[in-house]
Each structure stands twice: as C-alpha cells, then as structure tokens.
Amino acid sequence: MSVKDEPQAQQEQNPAPTASAAAPAAASATVWTGERWTVDGIEDTPTGRMARVELPSGRTVDILLSALPSGVQEGDILGIQDGPDGAVAHILREETQARRAEAGAELDARNARGAALPVNADGEMTL
C-alpha cells in the first residue's frame, strides 16, 4: 500500500503500512531516498490507538498504531518502503533526532529574540 499525493479528505483512516518488528539498521544509517511521513500525534480512539501521520503533501491520515514500528513516537520521521507484502514503515532515527534538534534550536532562537510564535486556529504553534 502506498499513499501518494492525490487530493482526498483531510483526515482519513488507513490501517496500513504494515509494521516491521525490527527495522533494518540501513534504514536509518544511510540517507533515505524514499517517501517520508511524520508522526504528528498519537491518540486513543474507539477503534484503538491511532497515529495521525502527515504525508509529504501536508495532508494527514490516521493509521492504526499497531501497523507502525514498535516504539514509534510523536515527531518520528518514518521512511516508507514498498515491499512484496505492501508498504513497510521504518523509523528514521537519525533524521528524527536532527529534525528535533533543528526545531529546538529554532525555538531557542525565537525565545532569545523575544519573538511571538504564530499560533493557528487550534492553538498550536507553527515554526
């Protein structure tokens, strides 16, 4: 299963990709050239724990947490790889750490300047 950038409803429920119990070391040790998804949030729902994932298009989909790699957290970058049994997600740990450090540095710089952070209609800050 591969989700591309087709225009669809903003919040969809999608049970795939399938989880990889142990992501290969090469998935995070090299530069990932495939599609990347960002875990925007994890929530309990009546149908189970769901991860809200942002696709490259900026659109979000809801995926069963059990369909993602074990230990996935909010803010993780997932590398999506097509395989013979469907798409497989890998946590790109090095890229996730780099993005968190970059966001932290940006927040520190804004705080040092005393700049007000823009807040969207949901009350969330955008960097």
Structural class: alpha+beta
* Strand composition percent: 25-35%
Count of DSSP strands: 6
Unreliable runs, pLDDT <50, ≥5 residues?
A: 1-28
Biggest sheet strand line-up = 1-4-3-2-5-6
Helix/strand order, N-terminal first: EHEEEEEH
Count of helical regions: 2
In short:
InterPro entries: DUF3006. The chain has 127 residues and is an alpha+beta fold.
Could you explain how this protein is built, in words?
With 127 residues, the chain is of the alpha+beta class. It has one domain (11-113). It is built from two helices and six strands. It has a six-stranded mixed sheet with strand order 1-4-3-2-5-6. A hairpin with a 2-residue loop joins strand 2 and strand 3 (48-54). The chain is globular and about 50 Å long. The two termini are 31 Å apart.
Keywords:
alpha+beta; 6 strands; DUF3006 domain-containing protein; DUF3006; disordered N terminus
